[in-house]
Design a protein that fits this description.
The complex is a heterodimer.
Chain A: H1 3-13, H2 36-50, H3 56-61, H4 65-75
Chain B: E1 3-6, E2 9-19, E3 22-24, H1 37-44, E4 48-50, H2 57-72, E5 79-85, H3 96-103, E6 111-115, H4 121-133, E7 140-147, E8 163-171, E9 178-184, E10 192-193, E11 211-213, E12 216-218, E13 224-225, H5 227-249, E14 258-261, H6 266-275, H7 287-290, H8 297-306, E15 315-323, E16 327-335, E17 339-340, E18 344-346
Parallel strand pairs in B: 2-17, 2-18, 5-6, 5-7, 14-15
Antiparallel strand pairs in B: 1-9, 2-8, 3-4, 7-8, 9-16, 10-13, 11-12, 15-16
Classes of the chains: A mainly alpha, B alpha/beta.
């Protein structure tokens, strides 16, 4: 599992946020487009691409995109 | 493993009652710090829904039953069982099923009970009715399912709508019957919860004080939903339950004509559909026009989306309810000459 590939997939969930704004250090919840509805897309992404079931707390406890990536990676 | 099969019972008819009043999910209704109305409608699929401040679940169910009994030309004296599935009963006690027995004019020789389940409730209630009917001791039964007006005034979450349904079942020897799979995960009991008003947290003046919960001001008699946890549960458990049922009874689930899922939200339901590789025209949705209607959602979808399409031919169904509990149930059955009543739209009593 590679973080750049994960960010590519994550970027597809956003409509208005450009891929170039997303880095491992990005605090995704500070992005203007982030919402609780978009969180559902991230949960679906983890399920579809990595067969990982993310909980609400996993999203709540993650600050950066790298945190999110590591949470998923640890559950594979 | 909670698998069950019961033979010699069939669904005779289905009807649904909803408030006539239509509430649109526009900017006036969707007020969140987090997202706008367009984003809400796009994700949940709920464009409008039916909501009433006066009609109870049993009012909606009663009207649906009145219509269905008449459409079926059933003699009320032959109906000897009534099950009411709801989390919005008329009173804390007695059971609403007892009230409906009298209101419908059914015989006193009648088995009546309430079942307190939500999204999975129609499938659970169905197993209850079908199992007893399959003994042949009684011949006709009614299963009510739905949710509407709550115990305390609230601004209803725009995901939800009100509906009351009735499913009429009868004992007929030689009918293929029903196959069920059920599951429960109480570790998620607080994923969807009303905190106060039960005996764990009694109702008190503090129950009505507004608190911030996930960006919304709500009181303690309102439903709190951990949306992300419910979503994660909803995309994983229903596909597994359907596959388990098919494997256990040795059939190919793709042979079914229709898959009716609890109408949770469009994003979740579409995820379930694509995971199971189902064609879109086999998976009808009522949620765009009626919202998430709790235990009414499966029968309401059959009434609102399949009326005029399936009555005169055999149809194979797989239905799956999942949610609050956490609780889930899947059922496979066939219909033939099913009676589907016109949607009953109610104004104030």
């Amino acid at each position: 599992m590679e973080i750049e590939k994960f960010i590519d997939l994550l970027a597809e969930q956003f409509e208005e946020t450009d891929r170039s704004l997303l880095t491992p250090e990005t605090k995704f919840k500070d992005l203007e487009e982030w919402s609780s509805l978009l969180a559902l897309s991230v949960i679906a992404l983890a399920d579809e691409e990595y067969d990982v079931a993310l909980k609400g707390d996993d999203i709540r406890n993650a600050t950066t995109i790298e945190d999110l990536f590591n949470t998923i990676k640890n559950k594979i | 493993m909670a698998f069950f099969e019961f033979k010699n019972v069939k669904i005779a008819g289905i009807a649904a009652g909803v408030p006539a009043n239509i509430t649109l999910n526009n900017e006036q209704v969707i007020q969140s710090e987090d997202y706008d109305a367009n984003a809400f409608v796009e994700t949940t699929g709920v464009r409008q829904r039916r909501v009433s401040e006066t009609l109870t679940t049993s009012d909606l169910c009663f009207a649906a039953a009145d219509k269905l009994i008449s459409d079926l030309e059933w003699d009320k004296s032959e109906i000897e069982m009534l099950v009411f599935v709801s989390q919005t009963a008329d009173y804390i006690l007695p059971a609403t099923a007892c009230i409906l027995q009298e209101r419908l004019g059914l015989s006193k020789e009648c088995y009546a009970e309430d079942i307190a389940l939500g999204c999975s409730g129609w499938v659970y209630g169905l197993s209850n009715v079908v199992s007893l009917l399959s003994t042949g001791s009684i011949k006709k039964a009614l299963l009510f399912a739905g949710d509407a007006k709550k115990r305390a005034k609230e601004i209803l979450n725009p995901l939800f709508g009100h509906a009351g349904t009735v499913t009429a079942l009868e004992y007929i020897e030689g009918e293929k019957g029903f196959q069920f799979h059920f599951g429960t995960d109480g570790s998620g009991y607080d994923s969807i919860i009303i905190l106060d008003g039960g005996s764990r947290n009694q109702v008190s003046p503090q129950s009505f004080e507004l608190e911030n919960f996930e960006g919304k001001q709500i009181h303690r008699l309102q439903t709190r939903m951990k949306g992300m946890d419910v979503f994660a549960f909803g995309i994983s458990v229903p596909p597994k339950s359907i596959k388990k049922l098919a494997e256990h009874y040795g059939f190919d689930y793709l042979d079914a004509d229709y898959f009716i899922f609890h109408q949770a939200n469009m994003k979740m339901n579409e995820k379930i559909r694509t995971k199971l590789k189902l064609e879109a025209d086999k998976v009808p949705y009522s949620m765009p026009n009626f919202g998430n209607t709790s235990s009414a959602s499966i029968p309401l979808t059959i009434v609102s989306e399949l009326k005029g399409k399936i009555e005169n031919k055999p149809a194979k169904f797989i239905c799956c309810g999942f949610g609050v509990g956490l609780s889930w149930g899947t059922v496979a059955f066939e219909t033939d000459n099913l009676v589907i009543s016109d949607l009953v739209e109610l104004n104030l009593y």
